[in-house]
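New here. Invent one.

***
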Amino acid sequence: MFWKAITLAALFARDTSAQVQGSADFLRFGCSQLVIERIDPLVTPGANPSPHTHQIMDPNTIDPPTQSTCTSCSYTEDTSNYWTASIYFQSPENGTFKRVPQMANGRLNGTLLEQEGGLTVYYMRPFSGSNKKTTVPKPGFRMLAGDPTLRSKTGNFANICHRCLQARDRVMGGSGAPCDSSDTASFPTKMCPGGIRATIIFPSCWDGKNLDSPDHKSHVAYAAGSALAGDKCPSTHPVRIPQVMYEIMFDTTQFNNPDYWKNGKQPFVYSFGDPTGYGAHADYLFGWKGDALQRAMDALGTSCASEDCTKVLKIQDGKDAIGCTKAQLAKEDVGSSTCYVTQIVKDESGCKVV
């Protein structure tokens, strides 16, 4: 286990050497923010508005490759849907809310990805074992990671976490394996000089039959023993798929006022009414065109590695990715002093969590 932990940390270190990039077991790229609104076709299909806000990367459609006219991701073949919950600052003084802005993550060479907010997406193959083959799921595949009802560590096994960034980590998001011992399932309980990085790790094993399930989880599974995939899958879910991981960078620095962090309390709440952070979750809807993702996964370690897959995939200019946006379907102010979040109500004194 000790050797495995070191190996994972080495693979995920922000190392710019050709050796690391050439042998990388993952595809890594940025997706700009498409829209912020209360729409979630995975968990609450057809609901307008949805119970809580999401930050959505890429068009909100049932069949993205055929219905999308653009993509906010770096690679033009990727029109997948990536949903993550918003974070709000709740004022300890009057209980009102202000949405925490997102910031771009960094490339391995130390420069910022060209994106407006959004997230960094990983597609990973097994980090251990001899069989590195992954099978890309079929069109219409979707899944959910996390549980929005969680309010304690029970049920959380290091597949979702928060990292309190130092000022030097603001661009690159820190180093080391995701969700390691320095990260927390809950929100950090201290001010973070470089902001907060949220990490969502999705399951890596599929039953090979169902594109979805009633809970959006039963048709997929994590490999035994770790959120990060090895080359073994349970017999119930024998198909090893590329493991999807999100990194979302939240710029919490404007709220680094000691008055907001008194008595061990922190001032943030997820948009579904969770002031703990344990309920963090994310949705995924597969939307790659043709066999593009399969070709990229098969080429990892040779003509495709980490952020350099231009021999296999087509990359677009950053300004084009940022320019791919959509209007809100659930039209409302998602910025501040609003009460549209599950378990948040409004009375004469303002907004409050109940």
